[in-house]
Design a protein that fits this description.
five-stranded mixed sheet; alpha/beta; 19 helices; globular; 15 strands; single chain; disordered N terminus; binds beta-D-glucopyranose
Length: 413
């Protein structure tokens, strides 16, 4: 009883004192590509227009691995940033370390519970309090294509993996790189989970990457996933190692490559370059049913100073605000996390995403992305990705890969 009472008092006090201070925020994020930088600028501008002072702390590196290393160093040295791009179970992991600020006063004042789907709100809560603010819903299981390249080669967007492979063989024979890919662990994992969703189906995906079911991890279907990864290794160019994801997107844009399998932040890249969906580039979900979601969010760290606390409140309020959710997501390639933002100004890929998300939510195939840190804790997703990358970059057989996968997961628990 006592602690509940004091909790309520301190939250009110936090709001009262912070209201008069000039909002300040040092914001750690990994949005550094063309489309990403344009998107984060929307937040910077809104923050500044409300009198806030933004100190930018961008840490380059797709997928955020480098940003998370930088965050750990800052927290360990007792100097946490005010706001951090953080998502999935990593939010709860940081909460358990006792370093996150409670943003429930803002969330309650703004009625977040009424405007966020329960599946998203769940990721933003830590033991009943609000500990993160959601920005968007990215879909991971997309195939992007250069429209002219497909047309010139008489190829339709593939709806099965066999069709994908047949298209890739045809393109390769015509001297076009079938698959634009960057050999970085998180990109290997992104392709792998998209293939896995198609081959395992939604239930199989959940068993493997949410429940960590050993039989599924070692199953013949999982071997088929690694078989398809081996086939796709033959469709990337010789210079794929280490390439950044946005440079792979640029290869599709300029017609050097035909396809990229990547989340819809790739669409943000096409749009920032002035390309139009349906004309210059095409989008389709990967073969198979289901929807892999990846929700970007910001967590506020426990910091001293009324100016920083005021900055945290202002940021949290803006992030979930209707205007920001629209403008940011128009640039970012994602769709709003809020359910009450009109999609009228959004393109056909965003409409497809919203429709598929709704249907998947109804039929139980709406699934968290393991590759983008939505499904598992870091140790477990890292163990899976290590195997995926080791397989992609060697001649390891699918039999060996599934055994290694099951061992790695068992050892990570
Ligand atoms: C993030 C996106 C980001 C992408 C590439 C993903 O994990 O959710 O916001 O654009 O990584 O860096």
């Amino acid at each position: 009883m006592k602690s509940v009472f004091f909790g309520a008092v301190s939250a009110t006090a936090l709001i009262a004192s912070a209201v008069h201070a000039e909002p300040q925020a040092e914001v750690l994020h990994w949005w550094t590509s063309g489309g990403e930088a344009k998107s984060v600028a929307v937040l910077q501008e809104e923050f500044a227009s409300k009198g806030g002072q933004w100190t930018d702390m961008p840490v380059a590196g797709g997928g955020g691995d480098a940003a998370m290393t930088a965050l750990r160093a800052r927290v360990l040295s007792g100097n946490a940033p005010t706001a951090v791009q953080l998502k999935g179970p990593a939010i709860q992991e940081w909460y358990e370390e006792g370093v996150l600020a409670d943003i429930s006063p803002v969330a309650e004042a703004q009625g977040w519970a009424d405007v966020l789907p329960a599946s998203i709100a769940g990721h933003m809560k830590c033991e009943g309090t609000w500990c993160a603010a959601p920005v968007n819903v990215h879909r991971v299981d997309w195939i992007w294509a250069n429209a002219d390249v497909l047309e010139a080669n008489g190829i339709e967007m593939p709806s099965t993996w066999d069709e994908f492979n047949a298209a890739a063989e045809k393109l390769q024979a015509a001297g076009i790189i079938p698959l634009a890919h960057g050999g970085q662990a998180w990109q290997d994992a992104t392709v792998f989970e998209a293939v896995a969703l198609g081959i395992l189906g939604a239930d199989g995906f959940r068993k493997a990457f949410v429940d960590l079911d050993m039989d599924t991890l070692k199953s013949d279907e999982m071997k088929a996933v690694f078989d398809q990864m081996r086939t796709m290794r033959g469709y990337v160019d010789d210079n794929f190692s280490g390439r950044d994801w946005n440079l792979a997107t640029a290869m599709v844009m300029n017609g050097e490559a035909a396809f990229q399998i990547m989340g819809d932040w790739a669409k943000g890249e096409f749009m920032a370059a002035g390309k139009a969906p349906g004309e210059d580039f095409l989008c389709a979900s990967v073969p198979g049913d289901g929807f892999l979601y990846n929700v970007d969010s910001f967590a506020m760290f426990d910091v001293d100073g009324d100016d920083k606390k005021a900055g945290q409140e202002l940021l949290a309020e803006l992030i979930v605000g209707q205007n920001f959710q629209k403008v940011f997501n128009l640039n970012k390639g994602s769709i709003p996390a809020r359910i009450d933002v009109s999609l009228e100004e959004f393109d056909s890929c965003a409409h497809l995403s919203a429709k598929d998300m709704g249907e998947s939510s109804d039929n139980g195939s709406l699934l968290p992305s393991y590759a983008h840190g939505m499904a598992l804790r870091g140790a477990q997703s890292g163990a899976i990705t290590d195997v995926v990358t080791a397989h992609f970059n060697s001649d390891m057989s699918s039999d060996e890969a599934v055994n290694m996968l099951a061992d790695a997961v068992a050892n990570s628990m």
